[in-house]
Amino acid sequence: MLKIGISACFMYPDPARTVFGPKTISYLENDMARFISKEGVLPILIPDLDDDKLLPIISEMDGFVFQGGTDVAPQAYGEEPIGRWKGDPVRDAYELKLFDLAVKSKKPILAICRGMQLMNVYFGGSLYQDTDTQLEDVLTHRDAEMYDFLYHEVGFTPGKILDKIYKQAPVKQINSVHHQSVKRLGKNLDILAESPKDGIIEAIGYNKAPEGWIIGVQWHPEFSETLKDTVINADLLYNFFLTQVKSLKSDL
User: Fold this and answer.
1) Taking the complete model, does pTM exceed 0.90, yes or no?
2) 9 is known as an active-site residue
3) Which residues pair with 83 in a beta bridge?
């Protein structure tokens, strides 16, 4: 059985919470769990542990997924917060460490939404803290009420891996649940997809690894069941990721 390590989301102590109120909770969102566990894959939540305990866990994984969630704190890319966008420095420190170990393990990585933003920051890039207020003439990329019912067109960079995967796709639309976006592209990263109406970067890939080995997407493939055929088929991306994982597994 393939084992995919997934980075944790955090909920911090909250006296108003009736369960585990004074405790920090590490969790995996249910749609993500269902999405990754297709095809007999075992999703494994990787907790925030000391390196000596984390390294043996990393070595047991066949690939990694970095899930969405709270903002990356601006301090992670050398800025101060604007407005109310403070981010989550605790999760940043945990995930940047985990991302570093995942890259060094030379195993496939799929980074989703916040995960893609974290990937860009890891490779030295920066983010727009709030796309709506920092850029003009941009689409609405996040609506709290519509959430994963919000979607827009996507354009894939010709000849790059996502263009190959979705070349014959009957629709070129993605869901959109983010208010931050890539500003300065990180070192050795390629743009794999953009929003054609406003130029917002929607997918990136690391070009110093085999094509598609380390890839980030701004949309949520795990939420695709909400809009079904209105958006691109998430199974195509999932199957590509699994093919990468299986190819490494067969070489060991």
Assistant:
1) yes
2) no
3) none
Identify the CATH number of the domain in which residue 16 sits. 3.40.50.880
Task: List, as one string, the DSSP characters of 64-96.
Answer: EEE---SPPPGGGGT----TT----HHHHHHHH
Count the domains in the chain.
Answer: 1
CA distance 54 to 7: 12
Domain of 93 in residue numbering reads as 3-251
Helices (H), 61-178: 89-104, 114-122, 131-134, 161-165
pLDDT greater than 60 at residue 252: no
**Which is the catalytic residue, given 113, 141, 179, 202?**
113
Confirm whether 222 is a catalytic residue.
yes
Residue 48 near residue 24 (C-beta atoms within 8 A): no
Q: Which of 95, 194, 202, 222 is catalytic?
A: 222
Phi then psi for residue 208, to 5 deg, are: -100, 10
Flag whether pLDDT at 15 surpasses 70: yes
pLDDT (0 to 100) of residue 250: 60
* Tens-place pLDDT, residues 49-77: 998 999 999 999 999 999 999 999 999 99
